[in-house]
Amino acid sequence: MCILRNLNKNLKDPNAKIFLKFVSVLCASSLPFIFTLNGDFVFDDSEAIIKNEAVKSESWLESFYTDFWGTNITSDLSHKSYRPLTVWSFRLNYLLSGNKLSAVEFKATNLVCHIISCLLLWCTLRSILGRLKKHKCKKCIDIGWLTTVVFAVHPVHVEAVSGAVGRADLLAATAFFLAFLCYNQAMTKTGLHYFYLTATVIFAAMSMLFKENGITVLGICLCYDFIIICKEDNTSRSKKKKQFYDIQLLPSAEVIIRITVTVLAIMLLLYGRWIVMGGAPPKFKPTDNPASFSDSKMTKVFTFSYLYVLNILLLIWPQWLCYDWSMGCVPLVEDPLEYRVVFVLAMYFYGVAVVIKFFKARRKRDSWIKVMALLLLGLPFLPAANIFYPVGFVIAERVLYIPSAGYCLYMVFGLNKLCHYKLVTKKMASIPYYAVTFLICIYALKSYERSYDWQNEHALFLSGAEVCPLNAKVHYNIAKAADAKHEYDFALMEYKEAIRLHPNYYQAMNNLGNLLKNQKVYSEAEYYLRKAILRKIDFPAAWMNLGIVLASTGRYDEAQKSYTNALRYRSNYPDCLYNLGNLYLDTNKSDHALESWLHAIKLKPGHRLAWTNILALLDNTGQFDRALQIIPLAIASVPDAPSVQFAIANIFGKMGRYEEAEKHFLKAIELFGRRVQAIHYANLGVLYHRWKKYSDAERMYKRALKLQPNFKSAQKNLETLKRLTLVT
Poorest-confidence range of 55-64, 355-364, 653-662? Predict the structure, then answer.
């Protein structure tokens, strides 16, 4: 704390002061996150990055035709989140990683963006405070610097920094602060006025193309311009002992042009955004934002107001952080007499009190800083406030990234003012500074702890259940993560809990039915899959899984109808075509099976199982000429598929092309790794047996029997080999 208070006193060199403050901001913005960069892609990263074809597309223009999640922006299924420049940044990461998706590099890039954003915020606050608070007090600390340090370590930023998709908020903030700095220069640099004004509009447009709320920077600039005009006019006229209501603002032509250009830029950017969206607002499901679908206006007003309270609480004391706040996490405020309404009323009463106090102290310079802090807090949050249009979430911590700068400024400025009250003694004056230091330490430790939750989905989802135990989606995601880790009993329990909390959760029913199907509990699996279809008749995945269950229980006609329904609702469905091919094979319709599998690989060239079945069928039916035509395509499409390599090896072995067969057998065994099975060694042994490489054959048979001692064919072949060697 002494360092914070006495930094100006102990150092006389201004450059040394700036350097130490720079280092402190650098450390504060990096250390709480730097030790947890070695994590995975989690939650929304899957849809926005891993499955988003625009990230891996050869065309740089594709991101301008799709939304943030890879869906065509004009589609009814699109979330209308138009962020092409953010997708470009993902694509750059992909290219610089050698056409690979490296979670570590994505997270490291996010951290660099956060550091840059913090440094730009510091510059922004220096420019604001430099114009609104020109007098300096030896007792005061650098408010802009301390605000930046608090901002840098705030735990509500962990989602934006540690989640790869949070880069949209980081880049939007970076362009946001650059736009404001350029506007500030446009207000001071007369000769370069139009240059900086143009740069402001460009950075504002970039900020909007990084994330939608970036456009609000132009509103901040207009308010800032008005504040400066009012403050300077008020200052000059107060010297002539004029009243505030007598002031008549007479802006210069330069100011009029600046404001006009900014207003026109806002209108054009918003209009362009509307055109890109196809002239239609986004459509969401009731589970995404339940309050927006309520028929009661009172419920909407009170619930949205209560959400504002929760967002403010997350900024003040971010103890309860959750990656997803939908599906029952925040129940609707339907009764105006319930206890949560008290918090809503308290928030509005406080807002009214702040406005009244401002008008009473409007001549003071410090009052304008509070206004600027509140503008920085409120305006960037407006797009997420459900005022102009409903949004697709209840609470999203990453949307608080820019607004938190306003909160930090308001909080630090308020604590600094406490030290100058007449009733505060010299000893008590140190308390606010110690409080800020303590808060910084607590925030930094919480950010460090929270970053570990974002390392992998399992930890993230479990942390969500602690905060939002009533959120069905949280339990659904926990079940998915548990299923991926083969914790099947836990996954079953969590899927059933998700369905209990949300009885119409058809995705959970489908996944639960699929899990039960894999465990061969067919009757219960069929029950949940049929329930899922009842909730959503056009659910192709549920129809396909039901078909697999029916085929597994010998009801082939019903299974075929289920597959047909799945293909009716999703014509380009390679997995369904693959399973339909399996059904045809089971019913001795080999030609139909081959046709279905070929259709599957046409839609999805990387479908390993379909390729494997095609080659196995051609092998078993002796269609070696056709197999030779398909093998090069299979190798080009799935070069690292061990099952495909194994099937190719069997074909070459039967054709007597032993060297090629051996190469593919060894490649398959290498790719299988720890998953290698006895049959793989046994078949290679048969190849060596035919090739008359008896010692190699014996070695392979023994390896197969080591993995599976009761492997009868390997035992029989080994005995035959021993008799053969004795005879020779």
Answer: 355-364
**Dihedral of alpha carbons 425, 426, 432, 434, sign:** negative
Backbone angles phi, psi at 66, to 5 degrees: -120, 165
- Give the start-end residues of each E strand in 461-541: none
Which amino acid is residue 277, in one-letter code?
M
Model confidence over 203-261: pLDDT tens digits? 999 999 999 999 999 999 999 988 887 666 555 554 444 444 444 445 677 888 889 99
Nearest CA to 402 out of 141, 121, 199, 591 is that of: 121
The span from the CA of 574 to the CA of 538, in Å, is 17
Query: SS3 for 56?
Result: helix
The token pair that represents 542 in the structure block = 């549920």
Q: Global pTM? A: 0.85
Dump pLDDT digits (tens) for 291-302.
888 888 999 999
Q: What does the radius of gyration of the chain's CA atoms come to, in whole angstroms?
A: 32
CA 386 to chain CA mean position, Å: 21
3 state SS of 216: helix
Q: In the structure encoding, which two tokens stand for residue 451, read together?
A: 């970053």
Neighbours of 91 (CB within 10 A): 19
What is the amino acid identity at position 12?
A: K
Query: ∠ CA 211-216-217 to the nearest 5 degrees?
Result: 100
Structure tokens given for 273: 């955004």
Residue 697, C-beta contacts closer than 8 angstroms, at least 6 positions apart: 685, 686, 687, 688, 689, 691, 717, 721
- Contact by Cβ (8 Å): 303, 340: no
SS3 72: strand
99: left (phi over 0), alpha (psi -120 to 50) or beta: left
Please check whether residue 94 is in contact with residue 55, taking contact to mean a CB–CB distance below 8 angstroms: yes
CA distance 651 to 186: 74
Burial group, residue 474, by CB count within 10 angstroms (0-12, 13-18, 19+): buried
Q: What does the alpha-carbon distance between residue 573 and residue 591 come to, in Å, rounded to a whole number?
A: 20
Alpha carbon distance 226, 249 (integer Å): 10
